[in-house]
């Protein structure tokens, strides 16, 4: 499952951070997940329970913040939110291929002690 390896990567970052802070427990992990990342929040929660087992993040809360897709129009030099119909600039109707936000899966914040 795709989500397990993504969650493993996020957990490694979280554990490294906790080690640097000399923390013995991770209480909360917040992830930023783009709408285009192809990640299912439910699968991510399941993966979280699996990969945190036996680690200091075992009882941590997972919070998932979803990030809407944002495109950039080269002609208007503006950012816009695409619709369900596609990545078309609402001002000049040019099809945009440049997605500036929406694909990320990254650690947003951590609570350790
Ligand atoms: Zn435009």
Structure description:
This protein has a single domain, classed as hypothetical protein PF0899 fold, CATH 3.30.2320.80. It is α+β, with helices and mostly antiparallel strands. α1 packs across α2. It is elongated and about 55 Å long. It starts with a helix and ends with a strand. It has 2 helices and 6 strands. Helix content is 27%, strand content 31%. The strands form 2 sheets. Strands 2-1-6 form a 3-stranded mixed sheet, covered by helices on one side. Strands 4-3-5 form a 3-stranded antiparallel sheet, with no helix packed on it. The protein binds zinc ion (ZN). Residues 73, 75-76, 89, 91-92, 94 line the site of zinc ion.
Quick summary:
This protein has 2 helices and 6 strands, in the order αβαβββββ. It has about 110 residues and is of the alpha+beta class.
Identify the notable features of this structure and list them briefly.
three-stranded mixed beta sheet; 113 residues; alpha+beta; 2 helices; three-stranded antiparallel beta sheet; binds zinc ion; hypothetical protein PF0899 fold; 27% helix
The strand order across the widest sheet is: 2-1-6
Q: Which hetero ligands occur in this complex?
A: zinc ion
Measured between the Cα atoms of the first and last residue, the distance is 31 Å
SS-derived structural category: alpha+beta
Percent strand: 25-35%
Tally of strands: 6
Q: Tell me which CATH architecture applies here.
A: 2-Layer Sandwich
Number of domains: 1
Helix content: 25-40%
- Top CATH class: Alpha Beta
- Low-confidence runs of at least 5 consecutive residues: none
Mean pLDDT: 94
Return the string of H and E elements.
HEHEEEEE
Largest sheet: 3 strands, mixed
Please state the CA-atom Rg, rounded to the nearest Å: 17 Å
Gross geometry: elongated
Number of helices: 2
- The CATH topology assignment is hypothetical protein PF0899 fold
């Amino acid at each position: 499952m795709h989500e397990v390896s993504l969650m493993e990567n996020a957990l490694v970052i979280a554990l490294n951070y906790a080690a640097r802070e000399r923390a013995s427990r991770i209480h909360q992990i917040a992830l930023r997940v783009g709408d285009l990342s192809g990640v299912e929040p439910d699968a991510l929660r399941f993966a979280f329970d699996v990969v945190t087992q036996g680690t200091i993040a075992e009882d941590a809360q997972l919070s998932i913040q979803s990030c809407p897709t944002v495109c950039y129009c080269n002609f208007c030099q503006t950012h816009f939110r695409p619709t369900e119909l596609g990545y078309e600039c609402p001002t000049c109707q040019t099809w945009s291929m440049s997605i500036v936000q929406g694909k990320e899966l990254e650690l947003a914040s951590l609570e350790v002690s």
